[in-house]
Amino acid sequence: MKRLAYIDWMRGLACVVMFQTHCYDSWLNPEARQTPFFAWSRLGGTLPGPLFIFLAGFSVALVTEKLREKGVARRTIAHQTILRGAEVFGLGVLFRVQEFTLGYPLAPWTDLFRVDVLNILGISMILMGVVCWFAGSGSADAARGRSLVGAAAAAAVVALAAPGLWTIWRPKFLPWPLESYINGVHTFGQPQPWLFPLFPWIAFAFAGLSVGFWTFTRLARRLNAWSLALLGAAGVAIGALSVLFDGAPLHWFGEYDYWHTSPNFFLMRCGILLIILAFSYAWCRWGLPGFVFSPLVQLGQTSLLVYWVHIEFVYGRFSILPKGQCSIAKATAGLAVIFAAMLALSVLRTRWKSGQKGRQIKLSTSVETNGRRNGAVSGECLGNRESKTRLLLRGLQLLVFGNLDNHFARFRQAKLISRDGFNLVRVGFERLHFLRKLGVFLVQPVDFALHTLNFQLGTAHGQIAVRPENVVQKQSKNANSQQRPAVLRPQHTKFVLHRHRLAFQNPVGGFAHQLSRGGGIFRFDVKPK
Questions:
Q1: Strand (E) or helix (H) holding 395
Q2: 56, 74, 52: which is closest to 65 by C-alpha?
Q3: How far apart are CA 151 and CA 208, in angstroms?
Q4: For an engineered disulfide with 271, which of 15, 66, 235, 301 has Cβ 3.0 to 4.6 Å away?
């Protein structure tokens, strides 16, 4: 399926806002945290999570509609969606294992069960696949209408149930790892707003699913680009409705917490998301991204990778700046470094992926050409030994060189081996291997700089000249001084220059040796002291 630039641009925007939120939260000192700047940074931090989850629902709707138009059975579509959701959830669990491993022994074991955004993305995709399966019977138009209404209803139910499940309806009978998926309680006894429980976060996924199905309706197709403008206007109206409900004297049941569980704040954020969606479509169609390189579009194409990697260099053991000790200016400089590094990583990943895809196409063409030349049959007719061997080689080729990111585009390909388990393990090990190499690469320049500074300070303070042989001698001398007892230091020979005569005076030996110049030759005299 062809990528949509405005969807990638929105993901890239979420990545940039996420970078600034994490960098300032990790690096700013206590004084900087009291400033209005940090307050605005935290307010911006309420946007990346809804954007990622909303776009996941939007993408599921796009893929589902494309498959429905091709006549694919609803069971196959649901299977692909659920499978992709299970893969994302597995990546979320693997990410938690990685964080615990790199943070050991400081990281508590309970972090293995912490509910993060990847966990919720995976579960939301599984549930969206179930909803699309229930609503997918009948014609494409009827299935689209039922899916749109079902997704909108699910979003409303989740948003309305969140306040109660955080307060008066808390499922305290569940173990905390399970209750944490409901309201984010974790091990703290109270729901934590910085986690990503199902309520209310999954409501953004269903909202994105509903909006995605809307773009395929007959009315939206007739309006074409104006349908996105209509969504932007709807976003403004929803935001105004949120303000109106927030000012009303009556509120929904449960404790009213506008910034975390209130349905009014959910409406406000949905309105902002619709406005961003309309703006990104117009900007990518008529603005600069249509003509020049766009960093946001590039980051959006590898949003999972840059999310995975940047966490270690902001919050993890390999943080490039000291945590909680930086001024706003220093943290901003670190943010610029993180942005540039993640953009470079994204470009490298895209180029490597394009090269792999080109090689896969060449191999596929070669296999298919040889198959036609030798009279090979398709996977449905495994009548002879040669066809089985060729199909097995084709399956191994897909296993080694296949694209790991898009299961939906390969729903008709024959699969001899279930690749999803292999993909999950391989992706995890590849990323751990990359993090290890990147950590070594970043540590070596710092180590070299520290040694250089140490040498310079030694020379500046009058120590022996910094040469390789002197360094070795100094190390040997230090080792010998630690092993041998201290002895008296002998007196050194003195040099005295008197007219044309150079005298070597050795106070220990009791003699003075004089080398004088006369008659054009040198004469060596020995005299008693």
A1: helix 385-401
A2: 74
A3: 9
A4: 235
**How far is Cα 111 from Cα 97, in angstroms, rounded to an integer?**
8
Backbone angles phi, psi at 505, to 5 degrees: -105, 115
pLDDT digits (tens, 9 = 90+) for 37-96: 999 999 999 999 999 999 999 999 999 999 998 889 999 999 999 999 999 999 999 999
Q: What is the pLDDT of residues 130-146, one digit of tens each?
A: 999 999 888 888 999 99
| H helices present in 104-139, as ranges | 117-134
User: Where do the structural domains in the chain lie, given as residue ranges?
Assistant: 1-45+289-359, 50-286, 494-528
Sign of CA dihedral 330, 334, 337, 339: negative
For 465, other C-beta atoms within 10 Å of its C-beta total 9
Instruction: Identify the pLDDT of residue 501.
Output: 47
CA angle 397, 366, 413 (to 5 degrees): 50
Of 70-74, 263-267, 462-466, 474-478, the range with the lowest mean pLDDT is 462-466
CA distance 193 to 190: 10
Give how far the C-alpha of residue 166 lies from the chain's centroid of Cα atoms, to the nearest Å. 29
CA atoms of 131 and 107, how far apart (whole Å)? 38
